[in-house]
């Protein structure tokens, strides 16, 4: 049997090596590890955490294969990265948007290697999720064929948004990502009900995904949710101090929970 080849991934690691590792997983297409590097990662490192960030396949400075973008490919990359870096003990996973879906999928498949999961503006993988993501990616790729799209984005949302969209063009136009996401392997729903890990799901209160909160709490037995007022889907970038504080509190709460379990 031929071993699975994982693409070369660009990584960044800050903070004290080996101490309470936190792994940050970014979103899809217009995202990369810098969304963490310039928001919550420095505060996590300053608090004493070993912080690992990486560009997912096809993003940032990581390798961009023409095919191989099913959810399980992204999850396999995370597993291989953690094997290679050999972080000490179970890791705390933080995922933004699509990165949260990758983090949850990894936790479902490797629960013994995860201390807990915090997702921002995210949801577990379902058939509806895969269809929605494929439609969004395919629609974005189609619109970006119009040369008027980028100037309009820059006028409407600013140069930074236009730069991110420009960087996403090779992924959207040069790979099978939209088709592959639609063909992702979806775990049976009953498996989520057996996931015995603490999960915190954070949403911007004005985001469409905020309506996922009750569903998350009913599906995942260890899940609680939190909404950040005045913010939408870009809450990580819009309220980094709030998100950073939530991450630190969540990690400390996990430590307290494990200590109490050991005493019992």
From TrEMBL:
Superkingdom as given in the UniProt entry: Bacteria
Keywords per UniProt: Hydrolase
Pfam families from the UniProt entry: Abhydrolase_1
Gene Ontology molecular function terms on file: hydrolase activity
Transmembrane stretches, start-end: none
Xref: InterPro entries: AB_hydrolase_1, AB_hydrolase_fold, Carboxylesterase_BioH, Peptidase_S33
Annotated Gene3D superfamilies: alpha/beta hydrolase
AB hydrolase-1 domain span: 21-132
Protein family membership: Belongs to the peptidase S33 family.
PANTHER family: HYDROLASE ALPHA/BETA FOLD FAMILY (PTHR43194), PIMELOYL-[ACYL-CARRIER PROTEIN] METHYL ESTER ESTERASE (PTHR43194:SF5)
Name used for this protein in its record: Alpha/beta hydrolase
Native source organism of the sequence: Streptomyces hesseae
